[in-house]
């Protein structure tokens, strides 16, 4: 909303005035836009003091509504209520955050164009990763993770959109490997997972490749086959007007019929953050309806303590002309 | 508390029973310890459902207290209250989180021994970074950041404790550079900042070096000199029983007398997270008293849009025998 990349408070009034209160005034001068910028130091670095004094400076009407983010912790909310006597402090599940969330869920033409660029760089890296793992140039989890960090930045990315997960066969049983990557071997015999995203002009991609080095067990072959089918099944059910929950449910049902369980949600929106709306989760409270302009992941996965894990994640754009798979993630057989 | 490295709910009863509800059951089997482990899938991936059913399974007395973390958002707290009818749901600023925070602020003998190991690896990397920047082997922000990622893991670290900030002279004006590091030049003429930490067995170090390549302007020389003096001043004021706020205030006063302002707090505890208690911030609500076993940063910094930034950050252990500077961060002149 302001262009400020680091910690700051942002106040927006219904009269369309914006006030930014940054920790880092120098950064704000260089990067942020707001009607006025007041250093956090002016309020003795106290959020409550900033809130009280800025509310006062805005000459709000008695009992005027001041809404704070739905992420506000309960004890902090009580402090705000106390500090803003005479005003009505509001913190709603479906308030201002939900409006921002809905706005961000539908990408406009500029954002979609940017996503084509991000997907292009991501796909270029996917090809290079396959090539360099095949050739033996990239041997360890650290090798592949740092290759992405370096090559992404060379192509103008700010960095990775979240911590890269690179898990060789011994560690791919985890949805999110811990540690995220190590000095250990990658893409040796069995299943290895590589989950990464590139951040470009604020927006992030999010893809997962599975590297499968033969010989594989029957269970590993079954997992690869089911995950590929689930991935394609999801794409075939994505349409404008479809309930997002039903896409997640279709994949959960498919795995259940095969005697398997996927331990995570099928997908999530991507944007300025790696996890945005809409969610494809198969859960009653998921009320999202798929609509043109949405960009989200399709990432079925199966995991086994002994056989390791397999996940295949692509970024999907739903447009008026249909479904477009922006990225070229794949199961890579070695 | 459980050893689980990824997302999970943890329930602790006053009868010393622990129940872990992980997203990733396989990871929990491998890494976590708890009296019982129930997959989140069993509750349809709904936190409220897990809370309700587990509270029920514990046969709590009517109106028994159930405390949730002080980080719980206000609307989520309302949901919990609604779901846990017949029980007393509590969310306090100075409740269970504060007890954990206080426990974590004082490191025991094992934790201190671990920190000596972490500091040793960190110091080894500081020396290598100086050597390789001097020799011209590490030329870009990406070079230094990825050198840390690779060399830390080779020495058994899980990774970096937070995203490394490497900012060459054009970008060091920011407290936290954005992007954190780029393909651009590092340690060319002027002031460059390198802020990093290594995570080892869960715990993280946190140091900042400033690389100053001559010729420097008078303002840059003044900033370097003031930051070094502020760093040393802080160490001279750290003693058992001293108020943490007074250490921060001493440095803020020192800079103010020199006509400068430091735009951030002087330091913070380190541990399982990069920012822990105690804080050295110069703010009325900082009630921490320095005590043996505390490990925290001393990180004065000054920033200027044109001249760039300078920060010097070490990790300090306060023990019964006095102050020990664990790390060897420094201003490196080139």
pLDDT < 50 stretches of chain A? none
Q: What is the number of E strands of chain A? A: 19
- Provide the gyration radius of chain A in Å: 23 Å
Largest beta sheet of chain A: what is the strand line-up? 7-8-11-19
Helical residues, percent of chain A: 25-40%
Largest interface: A-B, 60 and 60 residues
Distance between the termini of chain A: 45 Å
What string, H for helix and E for strand, traces the elements of chain A in order?
Answer: EEHEHEHEHHHEEEEEEHHEEEEEEEE
Question: Can you walk me through this structure?
Answer:
2 copies of one chain form a homodimer. By secondary structure, chain A is of the alpha+beta class. Helix content of chain A is 34%, strand content 22%. Chain A contains 8 helices and 19 strands. Chain A has a 4-stranded mixed β-sheet with strand order 7-8-11-19, sandwiched between helices. In chain A, strands 1-2-3 form a 3-stranded mixed β-sheet. In chain A, strand 17 and strand 18 form a beta hairpin. Chain A is globular. In chain A, 45% of the residues are buried. The model of chain A has no long low-confidence stretch (mean pLDDT 95).
List the helices and strands and how they pair.
2 copies of one chain form a homodimer.
Chain A lengths: L7 E5 L5 E5 L2 H7 L4 E2 L9 H11 L7 E3 L6 H10 L4 E3 L5 H10 L3 H26 L6 H14 L4 E2 L4 E3 L22 E7 L1 E3 L2 E2 L2 E7 L4 H20 L6 H14 L10 E2 L6 E4 L15 E4 L2 E4 L3 E4 L2 E6 L2 E4 L5 E3 L1
Parallel strand pairs in A: 2-3, 4-5, 11-19
Antiparallel strand pairs in A: 1-2, 6-9, 7-8, 8-11, 9-10, 12-13, 14-17, 15-16, 17-18
Helix pairs in contact in A: 5-6, 7-8
């Amino acid at each position: 909303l302001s262009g400020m990349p680091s910690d700051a408070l942002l106040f927006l009034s219904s009269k369309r005035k914006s006030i930014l209160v940054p920790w880092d005034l120098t950064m704000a001068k260089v990067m942020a836009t707001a009607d006025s910028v007041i250093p956090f130091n002016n309020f003795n670095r106290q959020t409550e003091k900033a809130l009280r004094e800025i509310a006062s400076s805005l000459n709000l009407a008695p009992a005027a509504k001041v809404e704070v983010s739905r992420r506000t912790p309960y004890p902090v909310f009580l402090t705000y209520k106390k500090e803003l006597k005479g005003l009505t402090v509001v913190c709603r599940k479906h308030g201002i955050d939900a409006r921002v969330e809905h706005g961000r869920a539908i990408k406009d033409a500029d954002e979609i164009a940017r996503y084509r660029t991000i997907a292009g760089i991501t796909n270029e890296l996917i090809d290079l990763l396959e090539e360099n793992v095949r050739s033996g140039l990239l041997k360890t989890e650290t090798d592949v993770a740092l290759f992405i960090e370096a090559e992404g930045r060379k192509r103008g990315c700010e960095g990775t959109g979240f911590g890269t997960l690179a898990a060789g066969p011994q560690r791919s049983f985890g949805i999110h490997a811990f540690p995220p990557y190590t000095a250990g071997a990658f893409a040796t015999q069995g299943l290895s997972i590589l989950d990464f995203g590139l951040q470009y002009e604020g927006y992030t991609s999010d893809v997962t490749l599975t590297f499968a080095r033969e010989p594989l067990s029957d269970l590993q072959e079954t997992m690869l086959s089911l995950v590929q089918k689930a991935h394609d099944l999801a794409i075939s059910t994505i349409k404008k007007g479809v309930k997002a929950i039903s896409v997640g449910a279709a994949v959960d049902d498919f795995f259940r019929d095969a005697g398997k369980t996927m331990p995570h949600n099928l997908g999530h929106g991507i944007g300025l953050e790696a996890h945005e709306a809409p969610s494809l989760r198969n859960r009653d409270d998921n009320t999202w309806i798929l609509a043109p302009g949405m960009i989200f992941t399709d990432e079925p996965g199966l995991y086994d303590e002994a056989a390791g894990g397999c996940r295949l994640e692509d970024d999907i754009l739903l447009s008026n002309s249909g479904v477009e798979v922006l990225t070229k993630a794949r199961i890579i057989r070695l």
